[in-house]
Write a sequence for this structure.
């Protein structure tokens, strides 16, 4: 059963060493993420799964001890998903690497940790099914859900300006803050793809996991500093 969830954005810029001189611009977002992750530890789960978007080669399960690298982003830094064990051959995708980094910054509980890379185009029904399976995998399950909103919020955004982006992000933020699983499940898959939303599939996995759990949500942060929607929420 799902007992807690934290929703965080996944730009590598969350890691101060990557952001370098721009790091202070994301201090408040970073602090909100750490607050959300703290809710997971307080729930004392039996199992934690970090869920985030991934390219084809990185989809599926990543075991505890998997390593993620920030070298592709110009920083010689590696992080491990949970306590280090025998190093698996597969590397964590960027979203799970950022999630693993967040866990290293908190007093994490002693629960087993693993990662799940989800395709950004994975269909709604499949996402909900994956979430239900995760929720039923242990008596007390917690999720750290990584993903960004639209990358089309401003003229300088990665996807340029799309007038539909603000409304999409506003509804996503409302649903995440209210723990509204029906609204998350109803997010438009095609529109999300057009707006370069990386978090839609991860959020719908969360929606499936939280069905019937009776969790309450709290939107801790919402901003779009680089024309990309970033949301932080805690469900407990």
């Amino acid at each position: 059963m799902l007992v807690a969830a934290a929703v965080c954005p996944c730009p590598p810029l969350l890691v101060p060493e990557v952001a370098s001189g721009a790091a202070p611009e994301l201090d408040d977002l970073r602090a909100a993420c750490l607050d959300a992750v703290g809710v997971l530890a307080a729930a004392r789960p039996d199992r934690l799964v970090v869920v985030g978007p991934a390219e084809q080669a990185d989809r599926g399960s990543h075991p505890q001890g998997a390593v993620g690298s920030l070298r592709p982003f110009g920083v010689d830094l590696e992080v491990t998903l949970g306590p280090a064990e025998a190093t698996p051959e597969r590397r964590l995708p960027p979203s799970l690497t950022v999630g693993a980094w967040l866990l290293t910054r908190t007093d994490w509980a002693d629960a087993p940790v693993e990662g799940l890379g989800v395709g950004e185009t994975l269909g709604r029904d499949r996402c909900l099914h994956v979430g239900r399976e995760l929720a039923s995998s242990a008596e007390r399950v917690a999720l750290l859900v990584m993903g960004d909103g639209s990358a089309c919020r401003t003229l300088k955004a990665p996807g340029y300006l799309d007038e539909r982006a603000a409304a999409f992000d506003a509804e996503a933020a409302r649903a995440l803050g209210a723990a509204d699983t029906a609204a998350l499940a109803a997010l438009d898959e095609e529109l999300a793809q057009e707006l370069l939303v990386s978090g839609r599939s991860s959020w719908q996995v969360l929606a499936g996991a939280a069905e019937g759990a009776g969790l309450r949500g709290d939107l801790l942060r919402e901003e779009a500093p680089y024309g990309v929607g970033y949301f932080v929420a805690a469900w407990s």
In short: The chain has a mean pLDDT of 94.
